[in-house]
Amino acid sequence: MTTTTEENYLKAIYHLSSRHQKSVLTSEIAGSLSTTSASVTDMLKKLSDKNLVEYERYKGVRITRKGEKVALSIIRRHRLWEVFLTDVLKFKWDEVHDMAEELEHVSSDELVKRLDSYLGYPKFDPHGDPIPDTNGKVPANGQQLLSEMTSTGTYVISGVNDHSPAFLQFLEKKGLVPGTVFSIMEIDGFDHSMHIEFQNRKSTYISKEVSRNILIKSHA
Amino acid sequence: MTTTTEENYLKAIYHLSSRHQKSVLTSEIAGSLSTTSASVTDMLKKLSDKNLVEYERYKGVRITRKGEKVALSIIRRHRLWEVFLTDVLKFKWDEVHDMAEELEHVSSDELVKRLDSYLGYPKFDPHGDPIPDTNGKVPANGQQLLSEMTSTGTYVISGVNDHSPAFLQFLEKKGLVPGTVFSIMEIDGFDHSMHIEFQNRKSTYISKEVSRNILIKSHA
DNA sequence: AAATAAAATTAGATTAGTCTAAAATTAGAA
DNA sequence: TTCTAATTTTAGACTAATCTAATTTTATTT
């Protein structure tokens, strides 16, 4: 039905769409997939012919309901495999992305169903990203960006926006993994760096660069 | 390094090689992969350039040490995933082949290593096929073809040669699954059909067509 | 040993995905 | 509002894998 390459384009377009309301630009897609605008244009025509995106020359592209369903099903598989890799095979959260990137294209729906059941129907992947259900519904998660916080308070780390091994390893070292509870002690007015304190009283500083990529929930 | 298609050709050539000593013929490969001889010829040149096979025009092909290593590593992955699918996700033995066919091409060696460890280092897959180790060693298994037996005796079913869902479902219905203990009561001189009896005294008849595809070991 | 049948190879196309370089279009600036 | 710069698209070519049809080679049979 859809090739692996088409699936990767749809995933990229879906992710870029959710970052802003406007149409997704050819160059954005090219950037995100490390390919050329020429290749993207070709693929957009193909996806448009299959009614997976609405595409108008020079005007960028919007994903259709049908395309979104495909994208969400791939994202569901990706995140379920990430849970499998960390929870069952004990990989670290910074090691699973590339493997999940391959596993997500294995096509059996029954396999995904059984995997989901075996894992106990997880709602979030190891990076805190919500796992869409079979119908493409994404669980609401009340996550906010740490960088958007303007006042002190106590929070739990629930996810990340940057999934690169480098960033994940940095967070690991600083003790900023999902589930960690911390309080914002002070926010610097000049560079928006934050002074935060953990439950064990240890504290550290976080730059805006970092807080921009950390997702949190308020702590009960 | 190797593409999925190249891996599938190497697997086919490896399997065909083990059926006879001679070079593998272009048409055998085409038949086994449901493709044309023309396509096979093209691919043989490519594999030969990569030193994965020894190929001489019109003379058929032999797999090299290097090609065999690749084939065995794919076969290892395939069989480990089959164990995962049956033992962990509870699929039936006649359902796992196509999924394993896709999973075997996921490239991470570390993933295979962890999977192997998680499954408890199994030596055989659900169809009784031996799982090659990391170095490409295939465990000796003392298996024989049921159709080769010439005298009465007691045996255990240890595997099959035909992996098609139709055949596996037939065996399931007849109670001829791996692990089943039975005795050969009589072999018909005319059509080589066998009268066999199970431990619970029930008995059945097996045609040569069937016994040709059942692997057995002698029962302790 | 020549004729013929079977098998294998080559020639030439096709499809999916990609690229570079050139042309077209849009949007921002003077 | 015209010009310029940035973006996007087209044109043309390449690689991997495939096909059909034609040709070549091998093997068999008379």
Structural notes for this entry:
Two copies of one chain form a homodimer. Chain A is α+β, with helices and mostly antiparallel strands. Chain A has three domains: 4-63, Arc Repressor Mutant, subunit A; 74-139, Winged helix-like DNA-binding domain superfamily/Winged helix DNA-binding domain (Arc Repressor Mutant, subunit A), CATH 1.10.10.10; 144-218, Roll (SH3 type barrels), CATH 2.30.30. In chain A, 41% of the residues lie in helices and 17% in strands. Chain A has helices spanning 4-17, 26-33, 37-49, 65-88, 97-103, 109-118, 165-174, 208-211; strands spanning 53-55, 61-63, 144-145, 153-160, 181-187, 194-198, 203-206, 214-218. In chain A, the strands form two sheets. A six-stranded antiparallel sheet of chain A has the order 3-8-4-5-6-7. Chain A binds chain B through residues 85, 88-91, 95, 98-99, 102-103, 105-108, 110-111, 114-115, 118, and chain B through 85, 88-91, 95, 98-99, 102-103, 105-108, 110-111, 114-115, 118. The structure holds a DNA duplex (30 and 30 nucleotides).
Provide mean pLDDT of chain A, rounded: 94
Question: What kind of oligomer do you see?
Answer: homodimer
Strand order of the largest sheet of chain A: 3-8-4-5-6-7
Which parts of chain A are unreliable, with pLDDT below 50 for 5 consecutive residues or more?
none
The CATH class of the largest domain in chain A turns out to be Mainly Beta
Give the ordered list of helices and strands of chain A: HHHEEHHHEEHEEEHE
Share of β-strand residues of chain A: 15-25%
Shape of chain A: globular
What's the β-strand tally of chain A? 8
| Class derived from helix and strand content of chain A | alpha+beta
Q: State the distance separating the first and last CA atoms of chain A.
A: 45 Å
**Share of helical residues of chain A:** 40-55%
Q: Which CATH architecture of the largest domain in chain A is right?
A: Roll
Q: Of all protein chain pairs, which has the greatest interface, and how many residues does each chain bring to it?
A: A-B, 19 and 19 residues
Annotation field: number of helices of chain A: 8
Largest sheet of chain A: 6 strands, antiparallel
